[in-house]
Amino acid sequence: MSSTLTTIFCTMILFVSMCTSPESSSDSVVITVRTIDKYATPETQALFENLDRIRKDNVLFGHQDDLAYGVNWRGEAGRSDVKDVTGSYPAVYGWDVGWIELDSTMNLDKIDFDEMRQHIIDGYNRGGVITISWHLNNPYTGSSSWDQTPTAKHIIPGGSHHEIFKTYLDRLAAYLGSLKTSTGTSIPIIFRPWHEHTGTWFWWSIDFTEGDEYAQLWQFTVEYLRDEKGLHNLLYAYSPSNTGFERMWEAWPGDDYVDIIGYDDYFQPKTGEEKENDIRGVTEKLIHIVEESEKRGKIPAFTETGLEALPDSLWHTTFLLKAMKADPVASRIAYVLTWRNSNNATDRPNHFYAPYAGHSSAADFVVFRNDPMIMFEDDLPSMYIFP
Ligand code: BMA
After folding, report:
1. Distance 109 CA to ligand 1 centre (A)
2. Sign of CA dihedral 367, 369, 372, 374
3. Short-list 279, 32, 233, 15, CA closest to 120
4. What are 53-96's pLDDT values in tens digits?
5. What is the rounded CA–CA span in Å between residue 198 and residue 242?
6. Which pTM value belongs to this model?
7. Is the CB of 299 under 6 A from ligand 1?
8. Ligand 1 pocket, 265 CB below 6 A?
9. Are residues 217 and 224 in contact, defined by beta-carbon separation less than 8 angstroms?
10. 246 is catalytic
11. Nearest by Cα to 318 from 264, 276, 370
12. Residues 6+ apart with CB under 8 A from 68
């Protein structure tokens, strides 16, 4: 397609009569497509626009694996540690599809994929936002995500293991495509692949790639899922780590391949000036994320964070909220996601990031939840109808 035609095509407009506001003078409103997928479903585009609108005043709170298990329970319908403490589910639900590439029935943290699908449908039906990460195994060595063998060059187009990698993407695509409501609506997903690549622990780290191999891996993933597999329910989130944060643009896949820009950052318990230094570090990084996102027409987010086991019982207000509120630019992120509450009996003990009922940080978490800037699920407007 010629570049002029592409430009015309890419500024395609949608006429969405069902979204007409009472003030509209005609039956239709005109909406410019701002997602990288020009064929993104109306619900997916609405999610993008709503996140962009809401972030000016609010930050959505999210939690990983929230509905599947908590510190002291597993597989109880309707339960959530976050809801036990605050009365509301989180506004954002994080899930991980690691092992879907192996055709496994459960993910790497032992969540059955059929159950995960039902949790995703339930969260969406209640108005929540869904984000999915992918701790996939290494298609070159067969080892886990934490393998450090240089691999990208073997799986991008032309690489010896490209076809194997494509089977991984086929299985991923089948699952992402199966996330639909009972009436057949594809559930919009913030898909966050190849995360923390500025760190050194995953096989897709930029430390184990050369030249533009990481960008090629990202671009191929988007093009395969979107253009080859025809998935139009995805927003793509880019999330480097705090480690190597200054290298986040080295491997940038390009503005045409990313909808959401964030970063992942975890903390140690600290007090006094050391704690204040960490807070300043977060605020500065969020400012960078917000400024770059706004410049590029993207949505900024704090894609993963947490203090493991919350030994600082005031962490949510005196660290997380403080860091986001310390600067008006930093506070313009759309959401913050804290990591999972691993089950004490069946999984990793003391590996949790949200308070559970009875934990010493529960009271502070309620104060955090009641802050006017923070949104939980019961604060959300309709995220899937155009604003
Ligand atoms: C990590 C830990 C692991 C888990 C992985 C994927 O940060 O929580 O226990 O397997 O995420 O969810």
Report:
1. 7
2. positive
3. 233
4. 999 999 999 999 999 999 999 999 999 999 999 999 999 999 99
5. 8
6. 0.94
7. no
8. no
9. no
10. no
11. 276
12. 74, 75, 111, 115, 116, 119
Helix or strand run (H / E) with residue 132 = strand 129-133
| Ligand 1 contact via 340 beta carbon (within 6 Å) | yes
Ligand 1 atom nearest 108 alpha carbon: 10
Pull the structure tokens for residue 375: 């949104």
| 172 CA to centre of ligand 1 in angstroms | 19
- The preferred substitution site among 64, 96, 116, 340 for testing ligand 1, maximizing ligand atoms within 8 Å of CB, is 340
- Name the active-site residue from 43, 213, 304, 377: 304
Phi, psi for 51 (deg, rounded to 5):
-60, -40
Q: Which pLDDT tens digit goes with each residue over 20-45?
A: 333 444 566 666 899 999 999 999 99
* Distance in Å, CA 342 to ligand 1 centroid: 9
Give kind and range of the element (H or E) at residue 222: helix 213-223
3-state secondary structure 158-197: CCCCHHHHHHHHHHHHHHHHCCECCCCCECCEEEECCCCC
CA dihedral 363, 369, 370, 374 (to 10 degrees): 150
